[in-house]
């Protein structure tokens, strides 16, 4: 795993990155450079991971922004695949990304259901008010 420390970038470095992003580049490259600039400006460390790289539970939990204990519960329930190296667990980055995408999709679906429920409730309340 490689990391980019935002404190290693000077203001001139960030400005140069923004200049490069404004040049004639494919849209994906421009988006990537803009995202790097946003992370550097916010002071967040950037992690560069290969999909076949393995992470420890501590590293995986940090990337998912959850406690190690909660991650271990997910591993024990089989929600995230892992392998054992001796007594230590290792999680593939690709499996972590797949889990996170699935979790994000479930969160969006739940939010959509709540929004739909709220709209239905509001419409029902209006209909009842009209009857009164």
Automatic annotation (TrEMBL):
Entry's Gene Ontology molecular function annotations: DNA binding
The record's InterPro entries line, in alphabetical order, gives: HTH_17 (IPR041657), SinI_DNA-bd (IPR010093)
Q: Which domain of life is it from?
A: Bacteria
Q: Where in this chain does the record put each Helix-turn-helix domain?
A: 55-103
Q: What is this protein called?
A: Helix-turn-helix domain-containing protein
Species of origin reads Corynebacterium meitnerae
């Amino acid at each position: 795993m490689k990391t980019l420390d935002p404190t290693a970038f000077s203001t001139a470095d960030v400005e140069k990155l923004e200049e490069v992003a404004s040049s004639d580049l494919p849209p994906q490259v421009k988006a990537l450079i803009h995202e790097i600039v946003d992370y550097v400006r916010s002071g967040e460390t950037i992690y560069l991971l290969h999909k076949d790289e393995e992470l420890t539970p501590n590293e995986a939990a940090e990337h998912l922004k959850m406690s190690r204990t909660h991650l271990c519960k997910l591993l024990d329930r089989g929600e995230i695949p892992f392998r054992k190296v001796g007594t230590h667990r290792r999680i593939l980055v690709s499996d972590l990304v797949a889990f996170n995408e699935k979790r994000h999709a479930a969160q969006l679906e739940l939010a959509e259901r709540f929004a739909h429920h709220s709209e239905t409730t509001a419409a029902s309340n209006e209909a009842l008010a009209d009857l009164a």
